[in-house]
Amino acid sequence: MATIQKRGNSYRIKVSCGYNADGKQVVQSMTWKPTEGMSSKQIEKELNRQAVMFEESCLKGSVTSAMKFEDFARQWFEEYAEIKLKQRTVDGYHRMEKRIYKAIGHIRLDKLTVRHIQKFIIDLCNAERVDGRNKNGGKLSTKTIKLYKSMISTICDHAVKMQMMSSNPCKNVTIPKVITPEKEYYSIEEAQHLLELFQKEPKENYMYVCFYTLAIYTGFRLGELMGLEWKDVNFDTNVITVNRTCLYSKAKGGLYTETPKTAQSLRSLKVPKAIIEMLVKWRKDQNEQRKKVGSQWIETDRIFTKWNGLTIHCNAPGNYFSKFCKRTGMRYVSTHSMRHLNASLLINAGVDVKTVQSCLGHSTPTTTLSIYLHTFQTAQAAAMDAVSEALPLKMSNTDKAG
Question: How would DSSP label each residue in 142-194?
Answer without folding.
Answer: HHHHHHHHHHHHHHHHHHHHTTS-SS-GGGG--------PPPP---HHHHHHH
